[in-house]
Amino acid sequence: MIKIKRILIENVGIYRQREFIFEHPCCLIVDRNEAGKSLLANSILEALYPLKSSHLLNNGNITIEIESENDFYQIIRGSNGYRILKNGNPLKFETKNKGRIVKKSPGEIIFNLSREVFINTSFLTQKAGVNTKELYSITSFLERAIDTGFQDTSASVALAKIKEALHESIHAGSLFPFATKGKLDTAIKSWKEKLAQYQEKKSHLKSLTELQADIIEKYAQTMHELEKINNKLTKIESNYATWKIQRDNLYRRELEKLERRNQELKEFEKLVDFYKNFENLKSEEQQFIILYENEIQTLLQSLKSKQQRQKEIKILSKKLYLLVLIIALLSIIAGFINKIFYSGILLSIPLLFYQLKLYSENKKLTNEIKELQLKNTSLSEHAQQLISKFSINDASEFFSIFKKMNMHKAEIKEFIENAKKTEDYKKNLLSEEEIKFYESRILTDGEINYEDIEKYEQKKDELLRTKEELKDKIHQLQRDYEKIIQRRKEIEELDEKIEASEKYLKTLERFKKALQKSFEVIETITEKHHEVWAERLNVSASELLSKITGKTVNISFSKDLSFNIKVPEIEYDLSEKEIETKLSGGMVEQIYLTVRLILAQALSKNIKIPLILDEPFAHSDDERFIRGMKYLIQEIAKSNQVIILSCHQNRLNLLKELEGDFKLISVNT
């Protein structure tokens, strides 16, 4: 018997640190709802069969201690993984299978059961049925169950070996003296693909060897095209060389003319830099220099006339001022004569008004003179700024040169253009070596095609490109011809490979037929074993179900582990789908519990694993509850550890007569 001895839960759900010790073979945990019973059950499941991503653990830990007849195990489950200790020593739970790392969970190592089998047999949650499809899909446990109770286990062993041969590992050396690996079907497919590739390659090589005459013909055509391209290149280069010599002679004659003309224009050479600087100025700056002398002369004349008028006003104002003063004095002296006094006053008033007019005019003239002086200063500064660009300090010298330049602008431009043409001609003149080179390229016959000369570089590049393409084509044809010789040898080698591949493929296909026939025969034997095994389950399950329910209830398993139920109150057999709709909740619970107990005994063989049952009789009446609990406590607990979780505290009184047969544990601290 394998027993869970102790579990320590730290920082999981409502448990900060809680220890449970299961000393008795049958432990009954009864407490109120939400007290943590289901959390305890799920903690056991999480430690035995850890999931990759668990919502149960955050930073918590679960430690479980399990005892068998000969060994003591300790499982430490944390948020980052788990460790397994066997008799105090770390236990390796990772193995390599065909290059892949396979991890086994603690439950698979200790109980030798997968998570699916454990959940469907030994671990009962509330309202949980039995997923027989998951059980049936686990071939290794099903075959182990088939062998139970039979002396001859060769059927399932042979079946497993043939499955392995057909679907898992066929390797070279073990069965076949040629390269074969992987599944048998994959090996057959691989050799068929190889055979097809060899045949396709042979067909392709044959078609290539038939191209020999075509290659020779194309080679001759290409050589002829290459010769024509070379002739065209020779002719166009001859025309080009003739044209270069003629153009060189023309340049030399033109150069002599330009040099003679520029000698005649030599006197204007000094004005060239001045002219270039002037041309580099902005249009508005050029216009300013052209108009500067006239504009500055007009401005100075206007300034002079206004200054002269201001001077005249100042003299006239002084005279009027003296006259008014004299009249005023005389009027005061002759004040006793009224007529004379008033006459003086009347005479002074017009003079005063005239003097005010002269004052206003003088003020206006002063402002205008200031504006003209400022404008004169601005024009002079701007002119000096422009003149500084010509590296000339004196303005009169600048305008003197400017006038001369302006008068001989045409001659200066001609000198500059001639100098530029002279440089261009000199650059394009041929050296003695170049003349000799081009003369060696000239043919004695033929006229120049000037249309070709104009596009010489373009046509030459096109011809050279075509020439290179033809050369590449010739080289490729040569390589193709050489390959034909090699391909004849390759065809001979392929014939040998094709013959060997066909032989290997026939061997594999014959082997597959033999395996399939053996599989069919042994599968028939295995199905008969299934039927016998199902019959044995039917007898055991019906006896157990009758003890738990107190009624004559028959259960019938088919060979795929599905089952039907026959109860006294219903005339026909009920299928799995009809059980929950036709029977009471209590009866359904008892049926599923019976199925679990029977499957647990069959699938776990001689390993008596713990049974963890959460509310196994939640929907049963008191009578069924007492009968079921008695069977679990007095019968099942003799061979298997039983841990029962329940929230029905009021039912504890119904179990007083069994008090010595179980241990009561509370989830509270």
Overview in brief:
By secondary structure, the protein is α/β, with parallel strands linked by helices. Helices cover 64% and strands 11% of the residues.
3D architecture notes:
The structure is a single chain. By secondary structure, the protein is α/β, with parallel strands linked by helices. It has helices spanning 37-48, 106-110, 115-121, 132-136, 139-147, 154-167, 184-209, 212-264, 271-280, 283-333, 338-388, 395-407, 409-428, 432-441, 450-454, 456-549, 576-582, 585-603, 622-639; strands at residues 3-12, 15-21, 26-30, 61-67, 72-78, 81-86, 89-90, 94-97, 100-103, 123-124, 554-557, 563-566, 611-614, 642-646, 663-665. The radius of gyration is 61 Å and the shape is flat.
Characteristics of this structure?
64% helix; flat; single chain; 15 strands; alpha/beta
Low-confidence region ranges? 136-143, 145-155
Biggest sheet, strands in spatial order?
Answer: 2-1-4-5-6-7
- How many alpha or pi helices? 19
Q: Beta-sheet strand percentage?
A: 5-15%
Average pLDDT for all residues: 79
- The dominant shape is flat
What is the tally of beta strands? 15
What characterizes the major β-sheet? 6 strands, antiparallel
* Radius of gyration, whole Å: 61 Å
Distance between the termini: 29 Å
Coarse structural class: alpha/beta
